[in-house]
Amino acid sequence: MSTSTIPEILTHVDAGVMTMTLNRLERKNSITSVMYGAMADALESANHDAAVRAVVIQGHETIFSAGNDIGDFLNKPPSTPDSPVFRFLRGISSFPKPIVAAVCGPAVGIGTTMLLHCDLVYAGDNAAFSMPFVNLGLCPEAASSFLVAQLMGYPRAAEALLLGEPFMVETALEMGLINRIVPPAEVNALAQRQALKLAAKPLSALIETKRLMKKGNAGMVAERMAEEGVSFGRMLQEPAAREAFSAFMEKRRPDFSAF
Fold first, then answer.
1. What contacts 120, CB < 8 A, 6 or more positions away?
2. Which of 134, 95, 141, 97 is nearest to 254 (CA)?
3. Quick check: 204 pLDDT over 90?
4. What is the pairing mode between strands 106-108 and 54-58?
5. Dihedral (C-alpha) 82, 93, 38, 21: value to the nearest 10 degrees?
6. Is 256 exposed, middle or buried (CB count within 10 Å of its CB: 0-12, 13-18, 19+)?
7. What does each C-alpha distance from 11 to 55, 85, 143, 160 come to in angstroms?
8. What is the distance between the alpha carbons of residues 180 and 99, in angstroms, rounded to a whole number?
9. What angle do CA 72, 76, 80 make, to 5 degrees?
10. Which of 16, 108, 171, 242 is deepest in the core (most CB within 10 A)?
11. Helix axes 144-152, 154-161, angle to 10 degrees
């Protein structure tokens, strides 16, 4: 069975696997509010569809996602807990069935933090990860302020989140963010094969095993995500973020000396 949501977010269900494809290559798969809404809706549909036993999230072999579409983000900032981006983050963090991610090229901001909520992540040898929230005058999201420190240890998390420094695929493998590195042309196919393996297993066993593995962090993840959302919304209105976004749109270096 094949379905689609919007042209920028394609979904396809076959053999128990729902594949969600970021399909905005001309804008480096940057994500708009409408795209977040479509992704949240797709996950909700997959959650309630007995025919879906696993989900694959993928981009293009040259780019996973450049993160938020800055122009759209400025025009439609997330202002309530029901904003599409927060709906998507709650949906992916609490999704009960297995999620497999296929990542090639840059994964910026939410392009990296969403992976913290996936169960299996396969990456091309061209993948690169970054969480430059501080560089935009903002704080982390997706409970990454908790999960990144837990995954990497505090010193590496500080480099990734305080300095906003990117890290390459070998580091991501070593720290446990991803499962395997393969050539970019093979990543999506590998993710599909692994998802089909999952789809062939008893769904009740998959769901219960995932629940038990995540149980220790589930409450903290939800609490931290809510706290980050409040801080993120406040900081989005502050001078540092306005300067960062103006500099981005004007293609200049931001000046934070007054903030």
1. 98, 99, 100, 101, 179, 191, 194
2. 134
3. yes
4. unpaired
5. 160
6. middle
7. 10, 18, 26, 31
8. 15
9. 140
10. 108
11. 130
Strands 128-130 and 106-108: parallel
d(CA 26, CA 12): 21
Q: Nearest CA to 164 among 139, 129, 128, 132?
A: 132
Whose tokens are 């300067």? That residue is 243
- Stated pTM of the model: 0.95
**What digits encode the pLDDT tens for the residues 58-87?**
999 999 999 999 889 888 888 888 899 999
- CA nearest neighbour of 57 among 67, 65, 49, 48: 65
pLDDT tens for 86-133 read: 999 999 999 999 999 999 999 999 999 999 999 999 999 999 999 999
Tokens of residue 157, six digits? 């998390």
Give the CA distances from residue 5 to residues 15, 39, 100, 175, 256, in Å, rounded to whole numbers and listed in that order: 19, 9, 19, 34, 40
Neighbours of 189 (CB within 10 A): 12
